[in-house]
Design brief:
There is one protein chain. Strands 4-3-5-6 form a 4-stranded parallel β-sheet, sandwiched between helices. The two termini are 38 Å apart. It is of the alpha/beta class and 355 residues long. 46% of the residues lie in helices and 17% in strands. Helix 4 (136-145) crosses helix 5 (162-177). The chain has 2 domains: 27-191 and 336-350, Rossmann fold; 195-329, 3-Layer(aba) Sandwich (Rossmann fold), CATH 3.40.50.1400.
Length: 355
C-alpha cells in the first residue's frame, strides 16, 4: 500500500500500516533554562509572576498555612506595584519584554548557530523559563513533538543552589511526567569552576578595567543571596561562590584580598548569607575605598537584580557613604567567550549522544 503524505520532518515507520500516525524524525534536544520574567510590568502581570515565584517551596520553604496568607493578602497586594516600577525602569520597550528575555534569546540564538556548526542540523536548541513564559512544560512539549528522543537540560546557573538549579530541574521533571513518550534526559551540572567560564569572567573584568581612568580599589563579586539556614542544611552554593571568586582572582593574577565575595537580594527577617552587598559597599566607602567595581558571577544574564538593584540601590548605598567611582561589570550575557564556555559544557554532556 502507498504511504500517505508526511509532514516535513516526519517519517513513516518502515513496516507500519498506512493508518499509523506520523512519527517525527529522531532528534536530540538542548533545552536552556533561565529563572524567569513577567510578561509585562503592569500589576496583574507582576502579581502572576511573583505568585508563581514566591509560592515555590524551593524559594520560600515555610509551611503553606503560614506563608500563603501572608503572601496572598499582604505581599501580593503591594509588591507588584514596587516590582513593576523597577521593571519599568529597565524594560526593553522596543521589544516589549524584559532584558532577561532579550538576552536569553540572544544567547540561545548564538548557541543554536554554534551547535549547528559543530554537530549539523540534527540537534534542536530551545529555551524556557522556570517562572513565566516560555514555560518549561511548553518547551518540553515542543521538543517531544519535534522528535527529540534525547534532551540535554541546561540550567543557566554556574553555581548550584536549591532555589535556582534544583527548582529548574523539578519543573523539567514535572513537564516530563506529562509526556506519554518520555525522552532520555541528561541534566547539566553546575559549572562554577569550569576553566572557560572563569576565563570569560576574567576577560570581562580586564575589559572593564581597561575602560576606566582609575583602577578600582576593590572588585566586589556580588552573588544572589539565600538564607544562611540553607547552607547549614547542606546547600553547596556558598562554597561554590567562594571558589569561583578565588579562581577568578588566581586567573587575574591578583593577590589575596583583592576580590570581596558578597551576597545581595536579601528578603524577609531571616539571616541570609553574609556579607550583604548593599552594606558591604557602604563599609568600603567609609573605609576609604572610593573606587570599586562590581561583578555578578552567579547571573548568566543581566536582569532586575543587576540592572536595577546593583546599579540602583547598591550604587546609591556606596555613593551615599562617600564612594566616588562605581563601575558595574555586565554579566557575561551573549559574549562570545561565554558562549564558548557553554558550548564546552554542552559538548561534555552530549558525549556518546552526538560526537
Amino acid at each position: 500500500m502507498q504511504a500517505e503524505t508526511v509532514h516535513p520532518g516526519e517519517d513513516r515507520l518502515a513496516h507500519a500500516p498506512t493508518d499509523h500516525p506520523p512519527v517525527a524524525r529522531a532528534r536530540i534536544g538542548i533545552l536552556v533554562a533561565n529563572l524567569g520574567t513577567p510578561d509585562n510590568h503592569d500589576y496583574w502581570s507582576m502579581r502572576r509572576y511573583l505568585n508563581e515565584f514566591l509560592s515555590d517551596k524551593r524559594v520560600i520553604d515555610f509551611p503553606a498555612w503560614k506563608w500563603q496568607p501572608l503572601l496572598q493578602l499582604v505581599i501580593l497586594s503591594k509588591r507588584p506595584f514596587t516590582s513593576g516600577a523597577n521593571y519599568r525602569k529597565i524594560w526593553n520597550h522596543d521589544r516589549g519584554e524584559s532584558p532577561l528575555m532579550t538576552i536569553t534569546r540572544a544567547q540561545v540564538e548564538k548557541l543554536r548557530r554554534a551547535v549547528a556548526a559543530r554537530y549539523g542540523t540534527g540537534i534542536m536548541v530551545d529555551f524556557c523559563m522556570r517562572y513565566g513564559n516560555p514555560s518549561t512544560e511548553g518547551a518540553v512539549r515542543r521538543m517531544v513533538a519535534a522528535g527529540c528522543e534525547k534532551i540535554v537540560f541546561l540550567p543557566l546557573y554556574p553555581q548550584y543552589a536549591g532555589a535556582t538549579s534544583a527548582t529548574a530541574n523539578d519543573q523539567f521533571f514535572r513537564a516530563l511526567m506529562r509526556e506519554r513518550r518520555q525522552p532520555a534526559v541528561r541534566v547539566v551540572p553546575e559549572y562554577f569552576d569550569h576553566p572557560l567560564y572563569i576565563e570569560a569572567l576574567a576577560q570581562s573584568v580586564e575589559r572593564a578595567y581597561a575602560g576606566v581612568d582609575h583602577r578600582p580599589d576593590v572588585l566586589v563579586a556580588s552573588y544572589h543571596g539565600m538564607p544562611k539556614r540553607y547552607l547549614m542544611e547542606g546547600d553547596p552554593y556558598h562554597c561554590q561562590c567562594q571558589k569561583t571568586s578565588r579562581l577568578l582572582r588566581e586567573r587575574l593574577g591578583w593577590p589575596a584580598g583583592s576580590i570581596d565575595t558578597t551576597f545581595q537580594s536579601v528578603f524577609g527577617r531571616e539571616e541570609w548569607l553574609r556579607p550583604y552587598t548593599v552594606e558591604h559597599v557602604a563599609e568600603l566607602a567609609r573605609a576609604g575605598k572610593k573606587r570599586i567595581a562590581v561583578i555578578s558571577p552567579a547571573f548568566s544574564a543581566d536582569c532586575i537584580e543587576t540592572l536595577e538593584e546593583i546599579q540602583g540601590e547598591i550604587r546609591e548605598a556606596f555613593e551615599h557613604a562617600g564612594g566616588e567611582e562605581f563601575t558595574y561589570i555586565p554579566c557575561l550575557n551573549d559574549d562570545d567567550a561565554h558562549i564558548a564556555a557553554l558550548m564546552a559544557v554542552l559538548r561534555a554532556n552530549l558525549a556518546g549522544w552526538a560526537d
